[in-house]
Amino acid sequence: MPRRLVPPIRLTLPPLRFWPRAAALVAVFTGALALALPVASGRTQAPGPRHSAALSAFAAARAGRVPRWAPETLVDVERTLQKALLEWSRQQSRFTLLRDFGPAADALWRAEQAARDASRLAGERYAEARLWADEAIAEVRALHLHGDALSAATALPRSERAHLLRARLLLAEAEAWQREGEPIAAADQAERSQAELVRALGPSLEAAERFTAAEQVRRWRRWVEQTRTWSRSTGRPAILVFKEKNLLTLMRNGVPVRSYPADIGQNALDVKRRVGDKATPEGHYRVVDRKDRGQSRFHRALLLDYPNQEDRRRLAAALRTGDLPRGTRLGGLIEIHGEGGRGRNWTDGCVALSNADMDDLFTRIPLGTRVTIVGGDGRNGTFSDLLARIEGEQKGR
Amino acid sequence: MIDITARRRGFLGLRSPLLSAAPGCGMKTAVDTGDGIPRIAGSVTATQMKKLSVLSAILGIALLTAACASEPKEAVSAARAALEAARTAGAADYAPAALAAAETAFASLDAELKAQSDKFALTRSYTKATELAAAAMTAAETATAEAATGKEKMKTDVTALMGEVKTAITTTTEMLAKAPKGKGSAADIEAMKSDVAGIESSLADIDAAIAAGRFKDAMVKAEAAKQGLDRIAADVQAAMEAKKAAR
Description:
- The complex is a heterodimer of chains A (397) and B (247).
- Chain A has 3 domains: 13-39; 43-211; 214-377, L,D-transpeptidase catalytic domain-like, CATH 2.40.440.
- Helix content of chain A is 57%, strand content 11%.
- Chain A contains 11 helices and 8 strands.
- Chain A is rod-shaped, with a radius of gyration of 46 Å.
- Chain B has a two-stranded antiparallel sheet with strand order 1-2.
- In chain B, strand 1 (30-32) and strand 2 form a beta hairpin.
- The longest helix of chain B has 52 residues, at 127-178.
- Chain B is rod-shaped and about 125 Å long.
């Protein structure tokens, strides 16, 4: 028999008792792998930082401007957070190796973003409200400047002054609310301040309109021209008083030679119509008396012939129409005198210069000198400028 | 029947009616139950004991689980009441951050309660919920305390400012009394006196706001009144200095 080169392979199966043990080992190994994989993948690890971030963003939204400025977003923010926390709690309460924090992490991220978006929206709305309040306050401040100019130039009646005080207090409240971070309250108070300001200044601004009324301005310019012509033709000095410019101009031969700052009656808006109205009269007058030092309470004085015929005629017409009550008197003792130069209108109707200016004028003015008092010439005066500014601002809006 | 020595006693002292009183009182006799294991008549076997132990353990665990599975209703109610108290105390205005922290704590508590209630009854555990309820309660109490502190501080501040306003009214009135009177200035002085009187009459609104607990409102009005008085005082001072300079 030839010898085999390759010995025969004899396959022998393991004994029967081997197989259950092998199956058990495989099962244990597979089970271990199945349990280790989730842990290795990290899905059983609770996303602590994301959880904290979501809660912080929610707390910041609740503590910040969202409840006031974007309340409608809070429902969605809270719902989103609730879903995320519910998923988180569910996973937390499961057996460790069975946990899967993937969906919870996503939900927490969405909750954080929802809270941040709500905070951003609230911040934008708040900024917009602040801007609107700033504009309202700036507008009222500008009106207050006009009010200050008007109240400095003319005495406001008591009721209007009370409204002006109220307007100032409301503006201060508006500014305080804005500092406190309450722009809606600030804008409300600014609006109320504006309403009070209109009540305070409205009647006075209406009265001030005569300083820009075309017919009135033409009349004044005509008086000025008449006086200039008279001075030129006679060679004599003449005085022009421009009430809203607070200016007294000395003319000689029709040419202005010197101007002096002049304080006029407290009621700078009106023309004198009766005794005690504290307004300076308007019209053509003459110097009828000269009071030197010691003869006047106001250093030196030049007495005018107020009331003249025109003033009497005007009173009679007002009494006839009932504009003035019966028994109304015109008053008198309107002078150009010293103790002035105070930079404000304080007299009972007279025209006041500083003592030094009065000394200079007194030496140049003889009895009979023509004195023409006008409201203005339509420009470069307190009231005409004020009205022009207001008109310009209204057009600009 | 096989005789067993008297030392073998039945479990729980059971005596089979088959036991005879004599011979030998107390002598137990074994019975054949057919499974090949000799037993004393009326006694419990080791297997039965093991089964009984397991049942007892299961029952014990079930009872314990039932105990842990009850929602901490009292703790949660107390915490919610504390949160409501914080809101009533004005925490939204005076301690917004603390109130937000309390509301955040409640969000976690509500989620935990819902998660547990969604589970099968025997697997529920409210241990975490109890801890969260305690934390929420603490946060709400902190918010209440901070609100009270904040409110008290604002009340103190506005009361102090009101004192300054009243002092400023007195000072300005005295200045106006001493202000130089003359032709023209008399009317200005009267106008300023009427302004001071107007501001003084506004103090009633400020007092009403303080009494109603609207401290921010009162603070703003008091600041405005002070500003108004400062302006009048400055005007009087400027007028007095101008008069001095004119002399």
